[in-house]
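batch job 7 of whatever, protein = NAD(P)/FAD-dependent oxidoreductase
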Amino acid sequence: MTTKFDYDVLYIGGGHGSHDGAAPLAGTGVRVGVIESGLMGGTCTNRGCNAKIALDEAVKLTRESNRLGDILNHHQMTINWSRNMAHKQDIIDPLPAGLEQRLTSNGATIIRGHARFQDAHTVVVDGKQTVTADKIVIATGLKPHRLDIPGTDLAHDSTDFLNLQKLPARITIIGSGYISMEFATIANAAGAKVTILLHGDTVLRHFYQPYVKAVVEDLKQRGVTFVANANVQSFAKTGDHLEVAYGDHQQLATDWILDATGRIPNLDDLGLENVNVDYDRHGIQVNDHLQTTETNIYASGDVIKSTQPKLTPAATFESKYLMQLFSGETTAAIDFPVTPSVVFTSPRIAQAGMSVDDGKQQGLTISTNDLAHYWYYRIDKEPLAASTQIHDQDGHLVGVTEISDQAPEAINTLLPAIEFKFSPAQVNRLVGLFPTLGYAAWHRA
Ligand SMILES: Cc1cc2nc3c(=O)[nH]c(=O)nc-3n(C[C@H](O)[C@H](O)[C@H](O)COP(=O)(O)OP(=O)(O)OC[C@H]3O[C@@H](n4cnc5c(N)ncnc54)[C@H](O)[C@@H]3O)c2cc1C
Ligand SMILES: NC(=O)c1ccc[n+]([C@@H]2O[C@H](COP(=O)([O-])OP(=O)(O)OC[C@H]3O[C@@H](n4cnc5c(N)ncnc54)[C@H](O)[C@@H]3O)[C@@H](O)[C@H]2O)c1
């Protein structure tokens, strides 16, 4: 590439949409810069997946120990919130430094500060440092959507929840998507009284609804309240607590409000008016090479306007694709693989490939296994465990969804069968380890 610029490739943002590709790209000798205004690793590493799953481990353990009941001598475990938070912090604190080390040891330069486009090849960092590059990748991710209602500043976002040093007695969550359901699970298990105010009447709309209903019923039995069509109107502070006005003149007294109404593209003060990059409220428009309408500017990860799920593995796949494109390893368009998704409720719901509803519409074979009564799942007494598979006319597995504590591992196991279209004969040749979850999962492929 040219030496006319400071860098061959400059990334704005240091999340999975950039560093997974930027580090190996720098290792090929390409001059790489990464500008990050916060912590290296972005949302997933510092205030998303990793923090959440670290907090959730204790939830999983208490659930399992309570189920195993009188097999254990001290089975009524409870969660110590502050120690759980400290455990989470211990896990995530060292991560940014490790990612920085991976970048710099491959030869990349890290530039700290907020990047703003001056023109198609120039960004200004924190209003003072000018950095130029041949190619620039926008990987600025998403930020929380905030309700535009009176008192909205009294509500908190997912980052605030993941840093709560004391668990509030009453938590009200607005929205019923991923963050709402995962955080409701954690807060409820730790002893908070949780109320979820829904926009409509659907929870986790992208997941198989019979399994979602089972999780909702379970949470209700554990004391979580769901209010459908809540029509939240305002938040106010009254004395020592908060009031949520919703519905038809209804009021809900609470101690803490989580606005979990979705995430929107993070394009704050990026200077996009200075470049020819098309975007709207759903994100940055790219072609099948992740190239924006300004041909030397690309985008990667959550900030892209696309129907791909906004998940870490998808961002990683895109950043690795750009690495191959920029290093000359490929000129082909990006070819997205099957991307599974999971909601870390307790039990979890995971899925990959075609949805059950699409399978039904196409007249494919749908089969459901009741796993709760299968001996392997009875070992830890899982009361809610089932899986549904979709097979095409030739017996290929084309989609699967599972509800169980082990659902993510089961779906990961089956992923190659869907992605590489294993024939029934090929599946039969897979002799796995027994007794294991993976073996049990393959028997459903
Ligand atoms: C609470 C929560 C839980 C999640 N759990 C999961 C999960 O379990 N599994 C999963 O797969 N996904 C999960 N996700 C989604 C996952 O975090 C994202 O898909 C992933 O982080 C996207 O990576 P990214 O690089 O596109 O964006 P980000 O990780 O958001 O990184 C963008 C980076 O850009 C930086 N930045 C922004 N603007 C500028 C600027 N102008 N100049 C310099 N730097 C800038 C930001 O500081 C940030 O570090 C979760 C998300 C949240 C919020
Ligand atoms: N396990 C995971 O992989 C995981 C976990 C957490 C977050 N994430 C990622 O983060 C993204 C954001 O999560 P999220 O839960 O904020 O978004 P989401 O899109 O999953 O859910 C948003 C919820 O807010 C509701 N809503 C929207 N507008 C509203 C309004 N005006 N009033 C009331 N409710 C309203 C929606 O009906 C929906 O229930 C996810 O889409 C996903 O990409 C992934």
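notes: The first strand starts at residue 7 and ends at 12.
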